[in-house]
Amino acid sequence: MTTSGDDRAPAVARALRVLSLLEAAGGETLGVSEMARQLGVARSSLFNVCLALEAEGVIQRVEGGYRLGRRLVELGGAYLRTVDPVQAFYQACSDTPFLHDEICQLAVLDGTDVLYLAAHAGRLPLRMTASIGSRFPASITAVGNALLASLDDEELERRFENPATRPAWTADSVTDLEALINKIRDVRKRGHARDVGEVFTGIRGLAVTVAPQYSGEQAYAVGTSLLEVYCTPHIEQQAIEALSDMATHIANPMNLGRGTAGAGT
């Protein structure tokens, strides 16, 4: 015979349901009677649960009832400090249907290169070339262009002054400094980065940046590589939306509201 969570620890289950109710209330206060009505339990038993939660600081008594307490912020911060962006990336690849079967990357900017921290192979018949620890030129990769979009034009000119930092891997690679700066300007306007055959002929790279959780945190970008022949405007839009969802998941693993990711790839 299986025992439900409510049977094993009814007080704990009710406490969690109280927190869920207050979360759904969106900042509005709820009285014990109203919460008892919604949960279908006796007011007296729920009152004791609320007293215990109040004593721990996870809910706060105010005029009109209760609302969530500051202790939850401390607990949430403690959880966020344990979140590994690489682990979050792989989880997001698994949870994002459109990208589950595609090649995806997580990268950071290092000078004029991007360093790949994680790579998801997907199921497409493409050889995975950007393995973990690989370095690629930021000037021609989607993830690199996404990360470069956070720099101003003067910094781009200084950083890529040396022609060696702008290599040509294919005939479509952008190697001219002015053209590179214009390309990054387009990334800023468009909100995502696009590499059309600049790294590998016939492959389109798309990317968005991951919003930092903390001030001063190193910026990340997530990207995907698609076969150019199949990459219609509709498919590209789907990919960008999926990457933005992934970036939001990595930046906001507790799902505290939905936001938009910045420019990427």
How does this model look, in words?
- The protein is α+β, with helices and mostly antiparallel strands.
- It has two domains: 5-79, Orthogonal Bundle (Arc Repressor Mutant, subunit A), CATH 1.10.10.10; 83-264, Beta-Lactamase (2-Layer Sandwich), CATH 3.30.450.
- The protein has eleven helices and nine strands.
- The strands form two sheets. Strands 3, 4, 5, 6, 7, 8 and 9 form a seven-stranded antiparallel beta sheet that branches. A two-stranded antiparallel ribbon has the order 1-2.
- A hairpin with a 6-residue loop joins strand 6 (193-196) and strand 7 (203-210).
- Helix 2 crosses helix 4 and helix 6 (85-95) crosses helix 11 (233-251).
- The chain is elongated, with a radius of gyration of 24 Å.
Strand content: 15-25%
What is the CATH class designation of the largest domain? Alpha Beta
Number of domain modules: 2
Mean pLDDT: 85
**How would a crystallographer describe the biggest sheet?**
7 strands, antiparallel
Poorly predicted regions are: 1-5, 256-265
Which homologous superfamily in CATH is the superfamily of the largest domain? GAF domain
User: Strand tally, please?
Assistant: 9
Report how far apart the termini are. Answer: 52 Å
Task: Name the helix and strand elements from N-terminus to C-terminus, one letter apiece.
Answer: HHHHEEHHHEEEHHHEEEHE
Quaternary: single chain
| Tally of helical segments | 11
Q: Please identify, by name, the CATH architecture of the largest domain.
A: 2-Layer Sandwich
Structural class: alpha+beta
Report Rg.
Answer: 24 Å
The portion of residues assigned to helices is 40-55%
Looking at the structure, what is the overall shape? Answer: elongated
CATH level 3 topology of the largest domain: Beta-Lactamase
